[in-house]
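Tutorial handout. Part one gives the primary structure; part two gives the three-dimensional structure as tokens.
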Amino acid sequence: MPDIRARHTAGPDDLTENTEEAPGPGGGSGDRPASPERLIYFSDAVVAIAITLLALELPVPTGEVRGNSGVLHFLREHLAEYTAFLVSFWAIAIHWMIHQRLFRYATGLSGGAIRWNLLWLLAIVVTPFTTKLLTSEADAYEVQFIVYAAVQVLTCLFFWLAVRDLRRSGVLDTAGSAAAVSSTMSWLTALMLAFLVSIPVALLTHWAAACWALLPAIRVALRGRGAP
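Part two.
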């Protein structure tokens, strides 16, 4: 029979790895850094839900639309919504790829990184709403566009702050992978700049979305300047 008294009198050093203390709101559990796996899985699930919500908002022909010509006319009428869906899917996909490429090097979590990651997820789940706002018939192009672009800028900023906190906490293991991390961060910076530049342009022209196509060029310029 196991010695129950010994279990109750054992000190902290006698605890096994499976009896780890539950982390508090700050993300820590004693001196042991929290495992990043649960946050990664949770983030993946939220991103998947956001992309699904994007698809659910796509216009579908109703019973009033008849024949091939009617369906084609309907699709042409809603081309803006379909284009916005593709842009938002592309943006969320890039955010997710950057997230999974960098969090694979996380050996633990800090409280700050968890909070910034939650704000990052907030911006991700708001994207379906801003996409619908962008293509609504409100006739307020500047406001609609700026709200959409600003959310994308904040998404990048929140993730950049999460990575900075991981680095400052010493739980981002980039030994032997510094080049990969630097390349991924340059994509993040380029994405943020592409959306940021488009905001003042939207006050001058309705073609501000063309700035988003400059992402590869901005990325090349950043690499030329040695930016992360």
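Part three, for discussion. Residues 65 and 71 are 6 Å apart (CA to CA). Residues 141-168 form the longest helix (28 residues).
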